[in-house]
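Ops channel
N.P.: pipeline sanity check, posting one input/output pair.
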């Protein structure tokens, strides 16, 4: 294999990370607390315009703590998008609660608000309202939040937004992740900005974040000795890694622009091929195009999405099918699902193309030529 591997969404350092890392070493703040952690929280809160932010060692940890603080426990039901990554669902099951999978709608590929409203009304009428709802903002695009917020408000159901993939996007001028009781973000290596691994929990409720901070630090009670009156977790992020996050946050807007440019390039160069359709940008906000996702109609294109993926792989280029819906996963198949055919169709025909913010036009052209070569008129 001569040509270098083109990854789906690799880390993209700005160069300033080393400055913050060196500062952490020079001041010996190598612990999972310190000045970079504090500054990262403040800078992040300002970026998404929320009141309080808590740096954690993963988005999954952030979701776990948010669900605990929303009171989710054994036997409870939590509504969640079926078209997502398993990390949106695992923390529900950690708590002994049951996910209820909700299908996508076609405008944004996200949680269908009509199904959420219908399901909540049905469960309320049956006397067992869901304990929480987790809208997942997929691939850099916001869920249509208003109808979901309104029904959840009516029945006092906490909304915990999974904005792991959607930092930098907007919904009616505001950042996804800041509409509900709490929101979570991920800085995993493949995300739009990364700390190599890490996450953030945000909320406008100071007590919520104070309590989450305590739980994330082994739930130490305020006392000179070690005293614990609830179960804790070791979920905080290193001050060294928070330094990487600060440098990455400085270039967030550039990263969004670069990813949107990738998508525009693909639209202009393969958008004319019959059977290729791009994930829509919904009218309610800005899609970051964290990943450029397409669907392939095998009849019109003359080949299916798997043929494209394999052709790219043969040229050392990574592409990935759209998320396999959670209700089709062996580990989750026995849980209740509302609808599912839209998510199944997006999985069957959907493909995510290389979308890294450091891609140049020759990288993009490599992808385009292969996709075009697979097309059979
Ligand atoms: C939708 C979604 N939710 C949650 C997560 C979990 O984030 P993390 O990997 O930081 O635990 C991810 C990504 O990894 C994700 O894509």
């Amino acid at each position: 294999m001569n040509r270098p591997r083109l990854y789906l969404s690799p880390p993209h350092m700005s160069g300033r990370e080393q400055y913050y890392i060196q500062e952490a070493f020079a001041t010996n703040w190598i612990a999972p607390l310190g000045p970079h952690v504090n500054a990262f929280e403040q800078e992040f809160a300002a970026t998404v315009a929320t009141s309080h932010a808590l740096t954690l060692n993963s988005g999954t940890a952030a979701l776990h703590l948010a669900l605990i603080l929303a009171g989710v426990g054994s036997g409870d039901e939590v509504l969640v998008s079926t078209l997502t990554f398993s990390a949106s669902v695992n923390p529900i099951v950690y708590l002994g609660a049951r996910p209820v999978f909700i299908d996508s709608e076609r405008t944004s590929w996200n949680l269908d608000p009509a199904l959420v409203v219908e399901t909540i009304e049905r469960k309320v009428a049956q006397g067992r309202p869901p304990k929480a709802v987790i809208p997942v903002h997929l691939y850099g695009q916001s869920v249509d939040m208003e109808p979901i917020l309104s029904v959840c408000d009516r029945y006092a159901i906490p909304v915990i937004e999974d904005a792991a993939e959607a930092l930098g996007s907007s919904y009616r001028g505001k950042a996804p992740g800041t509409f509900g009781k709490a929101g979570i973000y991920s800085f995993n290596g493949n995300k739009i900005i990364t700390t190599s691994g890490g996450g953030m929990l945000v909320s406008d409720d100071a007590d919520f974040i104070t309590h989450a901070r305590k739980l994330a630090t082994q739930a130490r009670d305020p006392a000179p000795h070690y005293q614990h009156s609830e179960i804790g977790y070791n979920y905080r992020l290193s001050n060294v890694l928070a330094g990487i996050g600060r440098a990455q946050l400085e270039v967030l807007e550039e990263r969004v622009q670069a990813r949107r440019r990738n998508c525009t390039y693909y639209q202009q160069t393969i958008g004319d091929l019959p059977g290729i359709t791009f994930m829509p940008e919904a009218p309610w906000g800005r899609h970051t195009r964290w990943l450029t996702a397409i669907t392939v109609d095998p009849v019109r294109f003359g080949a299916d999405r798997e043929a494209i993926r394999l052709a790219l792989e043969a040229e050392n280029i990574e592409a990935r099918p759209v998320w396999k819906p959670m209700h089709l996963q062996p580990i989750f198949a026995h849980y209740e699902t509302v609808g599912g055919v839209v998510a199944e169709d997006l999985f069957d025909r959907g493909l995510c193309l290389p979308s890294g913010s450091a891609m140049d036009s020759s990288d993009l052209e490599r992808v385009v030529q292969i996709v075009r070569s697979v097309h059979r008129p």
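N.P.: looks fine end to end. The longest strand covers residues 52-56.
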